[in-house]
């Protein structure tokens, strides 16, 4: 037989595009349209409905950037349409290619009840089936004229990303606003042909099934009268029925489709817009659930649920009703889908506490699945936190974005730093926006790396990023591939049902140990420095606020600010969302974040001040040091307050050859006349820290223009060009502090170098006005090390300093919390920071041996999506700690992040809890969230070894139980002796104890 395959395929495409799809709506009449443009920010629904609109017609321009317009559409169903199905087609001027990234709307009835959301792939509203004719139609649309930021060409600087700079020119042209007859038979024919055609295209040309589909499609097209598509569509469908009913082969891959809209809690839109995006999508999905009994939709991020509850009660009513059916599913268990590299130990824990608690309180749902499809890499501390929150499974697809290496598994056990293993699935469909296209399903089946031993994978299905969710077309396609020869099978399922099957079929999944490093988006550890500093500062202030408020409550009967701390925690957790903390949002988001962090700091400082005043007492004229760190400081115990003992006095003198020498009994540091640290001598070890012939505290400037994703990415070639900033304007001595001033480009730097005991503290103030540059601070260290440690949640993770394989080479920029640590047996160096996360560590081989260079990432200057990223003044604090063992790195990390608070007062404050082993670090002391007055203490082994410790309380307690992160009791009883509890901890083990206080 002659091969006419390409001819038939081309025919199928043209007839579908030009004849069959247009026939879905064979008749239409225009609606009357009027509009009221809200003068500023979004208004309540009642206000939008009550406004007086002005007439507007299709073709008119509307929509200033970030504006809200309330459209009213009215019309009458023509009498001659009696018995037909009628829909309103409401096209606000959509560009089909980008659902969620442009204008959107939510349709309301005149009584204010929501109907469904409108987006570029979903702009119909059902008016009625089997209409009588003559029905009056009146609908209202709350339309948001959100600008397209991720424009074509992509990643170009734009001022549309902040309402303050976006201007007021209208962005959209009102398109079709009609009442139309909906021909369901033609619509079904479109989907039949799409599914047959898409499946056919994925099959081998040699396969008989491919040709059966081709011939069936050809026969169906032959049956279509192009002048009467509506009259012949059923005949065409009949000719496809046989090929579309042939069942899947027994070995077919099995896809669990989960309806989904991955909505970024802020990104190319501000937080306030996400509140509305979530409402639009949720309204859309509750409507789709009513229309289709098989469909299942999962929504993550408790914060987004809370927004609906607070701001859109009419949508919330529909959502809660749908949840009760079991098909609108709260998924995951975090407050937001946060970054997991940068959040500190307690913050990462609280993401789960607040996320899970919301779903438990509202719906009685306690999920075991963690849902993080889009997060930029996963810290190795996470598995233990997931387990401690009472969960046991993780889903993400983001690692498929890695540029260099292909991850070897799709279903596996992920093992964290403490040995906890989490059953993990990466959907092989490689997207969180699956739309049920044949090529996506075939890719999932082909790509699945666990074939032969496992058969199930999950496909998050629906428009995401900016929202929209699943469409009726996706649901209709899923029904056709439920059991279809040549295709994977598709079943709508909850994440929990998928995981249960995946676990059951895979008795011995492979294991991946350590972080899930994303080989992309590495610059998110540095971009938007003030957002990162706000996060770190807030985390530390929350620790202090809880500690001192709990101490004041137990000691002085002061009220504990439960509601205030709960609210502030949720604010800080929200800003850890994976486009806020990583610095990849528009200018508006980061401008608001800076203001929010200032407000958080103001509130928390007030809480801390009040508690400390209550504790310090009014008597006495001394000064108390409140030590919030988990280690004794200047003789003041951890978590207590007392009179500080004297510290090591340091001396300063002029250095031979220029510059200055700072020294005390522990260190001698030489700063040359370029302001560089040419020697840092550890007196007790008798050892030099700086690599021979090199200089530390060296600022280095690189060009930084990634190939795409400007705020997200730094590409490895940035290292090829570097300028050492060695020219200085001033090196001077002020008391025991050396001041260094430099200028470069349009920027200036001032550094202050001081000794603080065994640390060299370096405060760097940068007035930054560069474009597309990367600023690093380098410390070449005379240490021979194959690997180094970076602090992560509740411990640290090791990375190699070499680049033996592509896996190590790809980690050229990585995340640390408060410290990076390198060591030879018996002697090491820590580099501590108060607010930076990105760093790189490399090795150099010189004549005398191998040295290690640690560089911290200070600032970048990408121009997309915020064209003014990081311009202005920034202050960073770093410390070099020669001779530091890992425990010293842990301790100095806490000290640098918790500045000393000196408070007038006479009454020393005994800590609420004392641990007799410095290895065991207390990360939280607080009162229980249930407001029972119980004291909750969380701690962990901090060095990666075993610990045996006794924890003693300074208050009597009736009972003590170990709990999970949600403060729910765990089985087993802690060993108690009076007011003391004996502890044995495994490496990095995390423990939470809950003490119920006795009345006396
Ligand atoms: Zn996202």
Summed over residues and divided by their number, the pLDDT gives a mean of: 97
Distance between the termini: 96 Å
Number of strands: 53
Principal-axes geometry comes out as globular
Q: Helical region count?
A: 18
Short overview:
The protein contains 18 helices and 53 strands.
Structure description:
The structure is a single chain. It is built from 18 helices and 53 strands. 26% of the residues lie in helices and 29% in strands. By secondary structure, it is α+β, with helices and mostly antiparallel strands. A nine-stranded antiparallel β-sheet has the order 32-33-34-35-44-41-40-37-38, with helices on one face. Strands 3-2-5-10-7-8 form a six-stranded antiparallel β-sheet. Strands 31-30-36-43-42-39 form a six-stranded antiparallel β-sheet, with no helix packed on it. Zinc ion binds at residues 262, 264, 374, 578.
What's the structural blueprint in terms of helices and strands?
Layout: H1 5-20, E1 28-30, E2 32-37, H2 45-50, E3 54-55, E4 61-62, E5 67-76, E6 85-90, E7 104-108, E8 114-118, E9 124-128, E10 136-145, E11 172-173, E12 177-182, H3 184-202, H4 208-223, H5 229-240, E13 254-259, H6 271-291, E14 297-299, H7 302-311, H8 313-324, E15 328-330, H9 345-363, E16 369-371, H10 382-388, E17 393-395, E18 411-415, E19 421-425, H11 438-447, E20 456-461, H12 472-480, E21 489-492, H13 495-505, E22 511-513, H14 529-556, H15 562-574, H16 587-616, E23 623-626, E24 641-642, E25 651-654, E26 660-663, E27 667-671, E28 677-682, E29 687-688, E30 698-703, E31 723-724, E32 730-734, E33 737-744, E34 747-756, E35 759-768, E36 773-781, E37 787-792, E38 795-800, H17 806-809, E39 814-815, E40 819-824, E41 827-833, E42 838-846, E43 849-860, E44 872-882, H18 886-897, E45 901-904, E46 913-915, E47 920-927, E48 935-941, E49 947-953, E50 957-963, E51 975-977, E52 980-985, E53 990-997
Zinc ion binds at residues 262, 264, 374, 578.
